[in-house]
Amino acid sequence: MSTVAFIGLGNMGGPMAANLLKAGMTVRVFDLVPEAMKSLADQGAFVSSTACGAAAGASVVITMLPAGKHVKNLYLGNGSDKGLLDVVAGDTLLIDCSTIDAQSAQLVAAEAAKSGIEFMDAPVSGGTAGAAAGSLTFICGGSEAAFERAQPVLKAMGMNIFHAGGAGAGQVAKICNNMLLSVLMVGTSEALQMGVDHGLDPKVLSDIMKVSSGGNWTLEKYNPCPGVMETVPSSKGYEGGFMVDLMVKDLGLSQEAALLSNSSTPMGALARSLYVNHARQGNGRRDFSSIFEQFAPLKK
Amino acid sequence: MSTVAFIGLGNMGGPMAANLLKAGMTVRVFDLVPEAMKSLADQGAFVSSTACGAAAGASVVITMLPAGKHVKNLYLGNGSDKGLLDVVAGDTLLIDCSTIDAQSAQLVAAEAAKSGIEFMDAPVSGGTAGAAAGSLTFICGGSEAAFERAQPVLKAMGMNIFHAGGAGAGQVAKICNNMLLSVLMVGTSEALQMGVDHGLDPKVLSDIMKVSSGGNWTLEKYNPCPGVMETVPSSKGYEGGFMVDLMVKDLGLSQEAALLSNSSTPMGALARSLYVNHARQGNGRRDFSSIFEQFAPLKK
Amino acid sequence: MSTVAFIGLGNMGGPMAANLLKAGMTVRVFDLVPEAMKSLADQGAFVSSTACGAAAGASVVITMLPAGKHVKNLYLGNGSDKGLLDVVAGDTLLIDCSTIDAQSAQLVAAEAAKSGIEFMDAPVSGGTAGAAAGSLTFICGGSEAAFERAQPVLKAMGMNIFHAGGAGAGQVAKICNNMLLSVLMVGTSEALQMGVDHGLDPKVLSDIMKVSSGGNWTLEKYNPCPGVMETVPSSKGYEGGFMVDLMVKDLGLSQEAALLSNSSTPMGALARSLYVNHARQGNGRRDFSSIFEQFAPLKK
Amino acid sequence: MSTVAFIGLGNMGGPMAANLLKAGMTVRVFDLVPEAMKSLADQGAFVSSTACGAAAGASVVITMLPAGKHVKNLYLGNGSDKGLLDVVAGDTLLIDCSTIDAQSAQLVAAEAAKSGIEFMDAPVSGGTAGAAAGSLTFICGGSEAAFERAQPVLKAMGMNIFHAGGAGAGQVAKICNNMLLSVLMVGTSEALQMGVDHGLDPKVLSDIMKVSSGGNWTLEKYNPCPGVMETVPSSKGYEGGFMVDLMVKDLGLSQEAALLSNSSTPMGALARSLYVNHARQGNGRRDFSSIFEQFAPLKK
């Protein structure tokens, strides 16, 4: 069986690589943090001392990094440091699962194409819980062939695997989705609080809107009003879940995208402003559904 | 079998009354427009020459009117004109299906209660198609007893029947839902157009977001981008459906409600501004999903 | 010399009435709070035991009350309680200086006109400092004749006296102005903070924008960034000045007005949402320039 | 007398260079469009066949270009093409008057500093009229020494010359100002139209707000409501002035800046969305005060 290289073993990457091992694949890993590699080694992964070392000779390379500049540096090299493109074979499939700007993804894809190498952007949603459970959603940008070749590894880590279009399309679709998610979250929060302000029970109102034309993912899976759903962050002091700081990052990417295409996104732009204010007030590490507290009167 | 009085036989009220007749009920109707009554008479309704005449002696009275002032005038009377409360028996059940401000509904309910009469606000969603098909959603505000008594008549006209709370709660829940709907529609429109601006296929992007965390009613049932769904208004030149002018009316009610409770609704307020501008540009009688055109570049 | 009745001796009304006394006018006062009257009596005012008692026989009646309902009750009476319109002579000039909705002002004006009495709405700006200094701005709605007759009394209390139009126009102009003021304050705050975030000195940036196309009243007189201007609330912990709760009230009136005329005010609506959130977080009694803190990072 | 090189002779640069000639300076010019150079030659300028040729040996170099990429390419070179930094002497003063992102300005300044050359960003405001009249405003970023050295040439082209701070500060201040300007324009438009919707005369309302707390540059100099001021674009079919497309460009720069510093600018972001929609509806080449039409009912 062929070898998969996995670079970037953080909160998401670690459990994703572990799922490849569980599926019986041979996995070579690299991370700047030795402890992160140690944990994977204990589960059967081969540890490499450099990213290029992990990637050289692998048939599939998967990367999971914080931002576009890291992805560009890793694949393209930086000054005298070699990049992955300098060391992988021509028939290697490169899959970047980071959430980054589409431009960076397109740049790396174009550079890879010059050497005849397939590069696919495949950002994920589903959070750390989905990474651990192997139930992530992958939104892919790249050729049809690359998308087909990626199926076995992606299926070992996720459930829904979408093909959004050519290079960068995975990033664009992810960022459109997350921008819309922020709008759903803010819009649902203000509607629920207005109902509460008029004496309605937020659970009753949620049940009604959920099956009416106000129905949306946040009412279904992630109600922001404390006490309505038992197991979501809003009922646990807004701990865990998807951090405000990460939503601010994604909304930043969405507004970068809007600037590039000269698009108008009044709702997404407003959501970004509200989330930035929320983060600046000290809520950056709480769950993003805590935006609900911007609308509720201060607890005495 | 007992008699139902139905007052207000417009685009919604007409087919609703017809469904009561189909269910075998005895129905007395009144409308200011004789032709509207004629059509119901042909289907078996008894025609009254006044609203009070229709209501006197009925066990259930249903009203479907344009705005709060009409509801108040009809039930409470106006100067020397008697109101329905002056003529109905103490055990009559009054059901107002109009979409109006909660204050007016609460006022009429309080006046009815002085005479020991049950009044329930029960605004509907589902549009003229739902009215014809008998598949409306009713969102009710009133006592538990009134809600129970209303079941047979409401079930003859609708499918989902919710009890939102006490007097006025039906109106509040309806307006919270429709405010949220407008946010979903605008947010989905801008996200789809941004994807299109970056070269994505709106159908592919819709399919991805529909089952992801951006999922919402508009992606499921009412996609605003032309060509994505075959049978919705966006694919028919934004004709039919739910008019922009009606969304502007409902968003006005939502902002009245927000002022009363001193609530903050930044998304709903922004949606209202965008819809008012859209209406002022001549789109008032088109479907509300035509807000998509505010984001798309002008067709040459 | 003729007699002026002054009803409503709060933070604004008290010093306004005192300025009439200083101008040598004969003043009869009434307030629900005896202490408020005591202070004016010490300055030479005649105290009345009822509002109607103060108004009867006066040639000019001035009122300064919290909201539209108080104004309507006072002028029109309430149930068995007589209103001012029942007791004043036909040639009395009625001037209401309260900031209320234009509809209420127009209603009272219309009722007064039935008895041939002139009523003028004349809301003020300038705050308690302006009231004490006699430097208020009056924005008047009413006939040209009423506007002329009002000059002597208004000049005793203020400096700029505008005639905005017919009945209610004073209220509309005041509320348009204050809505715009809130937009200037929020827009200036976010621009200044963005400059600071990029390392600019807020004083230097303020000086530049003040004389450029970003110039506006807040940069000129009321800079929201602490330390830029010495004597304004932002440099005194946002104490004093014009309270957030009062701006929320005025923005509520502006949105009521926008609903009535079906106007679109995206900036004003957004400002209201931001101010309501700010108030709900416990800032209601601080100066309205404290909205600046919504944009600044939390002080550690 | 020393020589000034002027590169970029468009609608702004052309008249600016002409003012240097009028002040008696020796000017060498370059532009990609030969006709643009011809006009300056007729006024006494020396024409160069390349930008580097114009700059070499000049004591001051002034550039006026469309965007950051042009500025970077011109100063830093591009591939085998030499940049200005490669040809100018160490004591040359470089002044870029383009409106670009602060990052690009800082990058060029840093590269220039490596060779001990002073570079200053000095974006202008005042439009083509100000350029012709020599009454531009310059907002400068750079060292104190550079700012002093630049005085003679800047005074030949403008009236107000500000020092905003170090490298890039001129661009930041300019973009903060223009973001605020867009907010003033939209906020003033909606306030005026709401007044008109309530029957007020826009001229009267403008006069009142101008000297009240709603006072701002647009009411003073650039009223957006047709017919209020005689000589501004709103009274000439919104022709001339500052194009919507240019405001969209500046608002794009402001949002890029907000993303970089993680700032929240809800008003500026909303203004950008409204201006982008306005441009997409075909108004890109009209004056930016035409945003007023978004609020006014469609003329029949």
UniProtKB/TrEMBL annotation, chains A, B, C, D:
Q: Which reaction does it catalyse?
A: 3-hydroxy-2-methylpropanoate + NAD(+) = 2-methyl-3-oxopropanoate + NADH + H(+)
* Alphabetized Pfam families for the sequence: NAD_binding_11, NAD_binding_2
Report domain 6-phosphogluconate dehydrogenase NADP-binding positions. 3-165
Q: 3-hydroxyisobutyrate dehydrogenase-like NAD-binding domain: from which residue to which, for each copy?
A: 168-292
- Give the PROSITE patterns listed for this entry: 3_HYDROXYISOBUT_DH
Q: In which pathway does it act?
A: Amino-acid degradation; L-valine degradation
The EC number of this protein is 1.1.1.31
Q: Which PANTHER family match?
A: 3-HYDROXYISOBUTYRATE DEHYDROGENASE, MITOCHONDRIAL, 3-HYDROXYISOBUTYRATE DEHYDROGENASE-RELATED
**Protein name as catalogued:** 3-hydroxyisobutyrate dehydrogenase
Query: What taxonomic ancestry is recorded?
Result: Bacteria, Pseudomonadati, Pseudomonadota, Gammaproteobacteria, Alteromonadales
UniProt gene name: mmsB
